[in-house]
Structure formats: structure tokens, C-alpha cells
Automatic annotation (TrEMBL), chain A:
SUPFAM superfamilies per record: Thioredoxin-like
Highest taxon of source: Bacteria
Name this polypeptide is given: NADP-reducing hydrogenase subunit HndB
Native organism: Natronoflexus pectinivorans
InterPro entries xrefs: Thioredoxin-like_sf
Automatic annotation (TrEMBL), chain B:
Record-linked Pfam families: HATPase_c
EC number: 2.7.13.3
InterPro entries in UniProt: HATPase_C_sf (IPR036890), HATPase_dom (IPR003594), His_kinase_dom (IPR005467), Sig_transdc_His_kin-like_C (IPR004358)
Organism phylogeny: Bacteria, Pseudomonadati, Bacteroidota, Bacteroidia, Marinilabiliales
Any one GO BP annotation for this protein: phosphorelay signal transduction system
Protein name: histidine kinase
Domain Histidine kinase intervals: 1-106
Amino acid sequence: MAKVKTLADLRKMKDELRSKISLRENSDNPESMVQIKVSMATCGIASGAKEVMNHLINELDSENIPSVVTQTGCMGYCYAEPTIEVIKPGEQPLVFGDVTLKKASEIIEKYIKGGELVDGIIPDSYETIE
Amino acid sequence: MKDISMHMMDIARNSVRAGAKVVEISLNFHSIDNSMELSILDDGCGMDQETVSKVTDPFVSSRTKRKVGLGLPFLKMNAEQTGGSISIDSETGKGTLVKAGFLRGHIDCIPLGDIAGTVALLICGTPDVDFIIHITQDEKRFNLNSKEVKEELGDVGVYNPEVVNFLREMVKENMDEMNIK
């Protein structure tokens, strides 16, 4: 059976990680990265916020977008969980509700990469005009 | 709440919101009666005795945004429906200890869920708080201290996707080793 991972393996991984990170610009400064906060209170967890958070972390990584995905408490939009707050560098924070895995990918693709607003912004009076 | 890992995340998030700097999570499995105890100890703001006695009432919450708080009531329901119980000890200014016992052989016991993924997300998604994780199965035990993880990583942020995946794998392998399902 293969050896079980320990913290020593993490140490080995570190140099590799560091070289990868230095390829991304200014990534040691959170202000210059895309910051995403996933609402993780009872309401969020029960609606699948954990899967959404995992998905965001992996998608942003595979797209090579410098980002920090963290957890936060309930934002008070329990009816629209899972909820995420996205802060692009130098921009106002935006809150998106009902973020399914599909929606999360759409937010990365259209809003984070393309700067285009997508439906699902809270307050929900925002809607795309066809 | 579909599984025990969700409860773990939920109660640990309560601790974080209570301003805890260190949150200690233990999952103790006992093969003799197929039981499991989840305990979460924090050094957050704590609660007075009156609040402790009311906290499993769904219509009590410390927050002002809404009038219900379902985290602890759900935990109580899920533990008690297996024949288990929960206990909450707290002291203002010192911290809180929440314990929940589950009898895993009971037909109404919810599954364990993704404990490894939850531990990884807690540590990496809440970089300002330290988590100490103990997973035991009878005599066997696995410990993980997020402070040590951060020390190993040095200037590399704990929120890195590779770190999340590494921690998930590490916890999962150790749990497999202990034969915890």
C-alpha cells in the first residue's frame, strides 16, 4: 500500500507551488487578486455551498486566474443560497445568488474573465434585457 | 443537513463567527457500539447560561438579519434520532464546547459525508483561524493542526488550490488507513 501523505510531503510540494505562484503576477497581494467569499452558514451549507466552493477553487485554478476563495457567514440572503460575493481588483463587490455549479462557471467565464454582468446579481432587480 | 460533515462545517463556522482564534474539532469513532462523537471546542466569545439553554430552539439566533437559527437544532435532531444526544457547554468570554453523539448503526443515522473535503475547505477557506483536527478510531488516531500546515507553507498562501487538494487527500488517506467509512 502506498505511503499515507504527511506534512513532510507538503514541504516537498512547497517549492513547486512557489515557482508556479511567482509565474502569476503580484499574487502575494490579495488586493490584486480576484476575491470570492462563499456564504457558509447553515443555509448555505444545506444548499450545497461546499460543492460550489470546491468548483470555484478548481475552475479558477485551471483557468490560471489569481484568486482567493474564502468562506464567510450568512449574508442574509437565505432564500438565494448558495450566495457568493465576487470582488475583482479595483471594482465594487458584487453578490450573486442561487449559484449552482453551472452558474459558477458562467460567472467565471463571463464576469470574471470577460467583465460582462450576468443574471443572478442580488438585489435581484437586475436582469438582462434581451 | 444531509450528512455529518455538513454539521461539522456548520458548527465550526459558528465558532469562527464567535471570534475564535483556535477551533478544535474531534471525531471519535468507537467500534464497540458503532458510535461516533463529534466535538467542537472554540475560544470564541462564548454564551451565558440563559442563551445556552435556549440555543437549540430554532426560533433563537444571535444574528439580527433573521429570526431563526437552525444549525444547532438540526444537529440535535439528527443526533437524537439515532439514539444519541448533544451537549453544549459555554462560558462568556472563554469559549464553547459542542458535543454530538451519533449511533451509527441506527437506520436514521445520516451518512458521514465528505469529512476530508470539509476539513480542507475549513482550513483553506478561513486562513485567519487555526483548526486542530483529531480523528480517532479506538486506539488509532490522526491529528492535523492548521498552524503546522501554515508553518510548512511559509510564504505560500494556504488558500492555494493545490493545498486544498493536498489536505483533502491527506485526511482521506489517513481515514482510509483507519478504516473509517
